[in-house]
Amino acid sequence: MNINNENGNIIYSDEVIANIVGISTMECYGVVGMASKSPKDGLWELLKGENLSKGVKVNCKDEILNIEIYIIVEYGTKISVIANNIIQKVKYNVENLTGLKVSTITVNVQGVRV
């Protein structure tokens, strides 16, 4: 992901964007953690701490981002409210911190934890 202006170039790696998305998502109420598919058995596992970017897929086309987030939510919370909060927070943080435009954010709930 590149931004070109009169002063020079800024190049963002997918890992940086994914980390911003992961941290922003974990700050939202009702999110237990990010989810990642285990290559061994194909099951979804809970990610915490430094592995937050593994629960995020970032695609960039013409300086416009498409983001997919895989999460595990807390039991007893309203999933639609959690998803809307994540979408608003992630879009705000990514656009303000990087200057890139976010086109779509897809929130995939992979599990519910007590």
Structural write-up:
The chain has helices spanning 14-26, 79-98; strands at 2-5, 8-11, 31-37, 44-47, 56-61, 64-74, 101-113. The protein has 114 residues and is of the alpha+beta class. It has a single domain (2-113), classed as Cation efflux protein, cytoplasmic domain (Alpha-Beta Plaits, 2-Layer Sandwich), CATH 3.30.70. The strands form two sheets. Strands 3, 4, 5, 6 and 7 form a five-stranded mixed β-sheet that branches. Strand 5 and strand 6 (64-74) form a beta hairpin. Helix 1 crosses helix 2. The protein is elongated and about 50 Å long. The N and C termini lie far apart (38 Å). The model has no long low-confidence stretch (mean pLDDT 84). This is Putative alkaline shock protein. It comes from Clostridium bornimense. Belongs to the asp23 family. InterPro entries: Asp23.
- What is the global morphology? elongated
Quickly give the structural class: alpha+beta
Number of domains: 1
State the assembly state of the protein chains. single chain
Tell me the major beta sheet: 5 strands, mixed
Distance, first to last CA: 38 Å
Number of helices, counting only DSSP H or I runs of 4 residues or more: 2
CATH level-four homologous superfamily name: Cation efflux protein, cytoplasmic domain
CATH topology, by name, is: Alpha-Beta Plaits
| Whole-angstrom Rg | 15 Å
Q: What is the helix fraction of residues, given as a range?
A: 25-40%
Compressed to H and E, one letter per element, the order equals: EEHEEEEHE
Protein name: Putative alkaline shock protein
Family: Belongs to the asp23 family.
Pfam families: Asp23
